[in-house]
Amino acid sequence: MHTLFASGQVEAIATPESVQGIDGLLANDVQMLTQIGFIAAGRGDTRQSSAIFAGLQALRPLRAFAWVGEATAWLNAGKPSEAVRCLGRFEGPPGQERDMVQAFLGLAMQFDGQGQASLRVLKAVAFQPVDPATEGMLLARQILGGHTLEDLNTPTPGAAGTFAKTP
Question: What residues contact 11, with CB distance under 8 A and at least 6 apart?
Fold first, then answer.
């Protein structure tokens, strides 16, 4: 929306739909691309979703959504090692976005048969001394099945690399 003043100057009135990032895209544009990418990812269409998410990764390299979206496509296509590779390229600083990527990385590693590595990644995210917990921390705790750190550090015979609770 724009307002024309008597002086002839035009001032842009910022609305959520009109806020542009430094790349010139409107927030709604990024949201629409993300939704289209997730539709393709839901079908396991890695060609389409990877192209969309690669563009979003270039535009928003420190945000989790584009990395998680591409990884979701690889998981839905039955290629967890590609999801692990994708998430491993994320270079964001510690905090909410990194926590979310790390939680999905732990999940992808579990699907890829890397149980011990998955457990290490998920424990590192889930049990950080941060209050309040980030969404990534909460997701990691859910993936770990609600176990406490003490539960996870107690060896269970025959359960290496699994998160199942013992009776």
Answer: 2, 3, 5
DSSP 20: B
Closest C-alpha among 163, 155, 157, 154 to residue 107: 163
Percent of the chain with pLDDT over 90: 64
Q: Could you read off the pLDDT of 77-130 as tens digits, one per residue? A: 999 999 999 999 999 999 999 999 999 999 999 999 999 999 999 999 999 998
End-to-end CA distance of the chain: 61
Tens of pLDDT, residue by residue over 45-67, are 999 999 999 999 998 899 999 99
Please give the Cα distance from 71 to 56 (Å, whole number).
Answer: 13
Beta strands (DSSP E) in 17-162 are none
Residue 151 class from Cβ within 10 Å (0-12 exposed, 13-18 middle, 19+ buried)? middle
Domain spans in the chain, listed from the N-terminal domain onward? 26-153
Cα dist from 119 to 66, 80, 86, 116, whole Å: 24, 16, 19, 5
Architecture of the CATH domain 26-153 = Alpha Horseshoe (1.25)
* pTM of the shown model: 0.76
